[in-house]
Amino acid sequence: MRLTAVEEGHLRNGMPGTIGIAAVFPGEPFDLAQVRSRVRDRWGGLDRMSLVLGRPGGPAALSGHRWRTARPFDPGVHVSATDQDLRSLLTDGVSDLLPPERPLWRLLVTRQGIVLLAHHALLDGRSLETLFRLLMDDAVSHGQASPPGRTPRRSYDSGRASEPPRCTGSCGASGSPASPCPRCPTCGPRWPWSSSTRR
């Protein structure tokens, strides 16, 4: 499958092309095996996450790059743990090239949360938000989810670490941005793959 003009442009602009998003969760660090299992369940059926960049078959100016599908989907090669802090991880991540021999994304599990890095030709900022949302407790399966890039705008800021949304008071509890309430489903730290509130 040939890249679109926009995708091709992200490869030819002379930059690494890596973008990133982070989610910060208080509490104990996530278990790497659980994260990989959730990624397999929630992202394994998304064709976009298995696309590998193929080199042009002829002169690049004429033929362009093509996507090819790498199967089976293997979260083990994409999801890894790191002791690096979020700020330096994002700074280094968007400055480095992703390995071209596999789909151009990585999910890194840190002590503070999770970081998704991807090439801009493969995913855009809205797609990163969609993928994070698919990992959450109340996410629908990939068959019911909106395609990446067609989802409502959220408060997460792509490219830098940010706190999860806090209570706006709509749940009837006394939460505030500075003090998350215990009752609202969008408040309080939660496991992305468990229905219970993290302590």
Compact overview of the structure:
This is Wax ester/triacylglycerol synthase domain-containing protein. Residues 141-199 are annotated as: Disordered. 21% of the residues lie in helices and 15% in strands.
Structure description:
- It is globular, with a radius of gyration of 18 Å.
- It has helices at 5-11, 32-43, 60-63, 86-93, 125-135; strands spanning 18-24, 51-54, 66-69, 79-81, 105-109, 113-119.
- It has two domains: 5-135, 2-Layer Sandwich (Chloramphenicol Acetyltransferase), CATH 3.30.559; 165-191, no CATH class.
- It is of the alpha+beta class and 199 residues long.
- The chain has a four-stranded mixed beta sheet, sandwiched between helices. A two-stranded antiparallel sheet has the order 2-3.
- The longest helix has 12 residues, at 32-43.
- β4 (79-81), α4 and β5 form a beta-alpha-beta unit.
List the helices and strands and how they pair.
Layout: H1 5-11, E1 18-24, H2 32-43, E2 51-54, H3 60-63, E3 66-69, E4 79-81, H4 86-93, E5 105-109, E6 113-119, H5 125-135
Parallel strand pairs: 4-5
Antiparallel strand pairs: 1-6, 2-3, 5-6
Protein name: Wax ester/triacylglycerol synthase domain-containing protein
Domain O-acyltransferase WSD1-like N-terminal: 60-155
Biased composition (Low complexity): 167-178
